[in-house]
Structure formats: C-alpha cells, structure tokens
Amino acid sequence: MMSLLVSRARNLARRFRGNRRGSAAVEFALVAPIFFGLLFAIIETAFMFLAGQVLETGVQDSARLILTGQAQSGSYSQSQFKNDLCTRISSLFDCAGVYVDVQSYGSDFSTVNITSPIDGSKNFVNNMQYNPGTAGQIVVVRAFYQWPLFVTGLGYNIANLSGSKRLLTATAAFRNEPYSN
C-alpha cells in the first residue's frame, strides 16, 4: 500500500512538473504592471515634451509682436498679449493656467536678471509683470504652465512643483527692433 501511494505521488509530481498551461498567465501577471507603468511613463514624458515645444513655439511667435513694436504701438495690455499667446497654444493648454511675464531691461544683456518662479517649498510664485520696453531695449518674454503628471510612481517622478506638477517654461530673449511709434 505504501509503495502504491509513493508511486501515485511520483506520478502526480511528474504530471504537475510537465504541465505548463498556466505559466504564461502567471509570468504576464508578474511583468505586466512594470511594463504598463514604463509604457505610460514614456507616453506621459513624450506628451509633456510635445506640450513644452508647443509652448515654446507660441512664445516665440507672440514675442515677435513685441520685437517688432506692434504690441507697443497697439498699446497691448498683459491680458491682450496673453490672449494672443493663448490663440497659438489652445490645442494643448487651458488658457486660465498660462502665466505670462514680460520684462524689459536696458540696452545691455548683462543687466538681465531672471529669477526662478519656484520657491523653496516647490510652489509656483506668481509675480508676473508686463513691460514690453521701447525700441532698442532688451526684453525677456516668459510663459509658464503647471503641467499635471499622472505617472509618478515606480520611482519615476519628474515633478518640480508640489501636487505632482511640472512647470513648463518657455523663454524668448531679444533686443527690440528700432521701430517708430
């Protein structure tokens, strides 16, 4: 009787070892969360870089209004300049979250002083100004947007603001053309 039980146990163990029907499902269950986490992180990063490029292009195009003196001649306010920028980037951005900072300096690039809009607690500091300057002055146009991040787990966190957000920044620095009013 004992040899029969041992024989059946060996036979059962041999059959169990040879059965591979569920191994693919178990392996997929182990690998899938990491695979999908990595895939979504790549997609989110690519989308964020696309948004940054759209913001950068919009700022460059809108800054031409100041560079050529059109904004100054048309007496643009900060909200009018922001609206012009928003029409260029509306496909990816909510205009209510876009911040525009335009500052003019003297005629020398060494006088330009750019401060970080992020404080020590990783909060966005909204001290935006609008001073497009006059002909021949150095002007720095910056636009900011707090981009929400969703894939911040698995040790991959590119947020530089509190609340799992990344501050997208676009900058244009130039000397105004010698336009006439």
Describe it for me?
The chain is built from four helices and three strands; from the N terminus they run H-H-H-H-E-E-E. It has helices at 2-18, 23-67, 70-73, 78-89; strands at residues 98-105, 138-148, 165-175. It is rod-shaped. The termini are far apart.
Characterize this entry briefly.
This protein has 181 residues and is of the alpha+beta class. The chain has one domain (24-175). It has helices at residues 2-18, 23-67, 70-73, 78-89, and strands spanning 98-105, 138-148, 165-175.
Features:
181 residues; three-stranded antiparallel beta sheet; 3 strands; 17% strand; alpha+beta
Layout: helices, strands, pairs:
Layout: H1 2-18, H2 23-67, H3 70-73, H4 78-89, E1 98-105, E2 138-148, E3 165-175
Antiparallel strand pairs: 1-2, 2-3
InterPro entries: TadE-like_dom
Transmembrane segments: 24-50
Keywords: Membrane, Transmembrane, Transmembrane helix
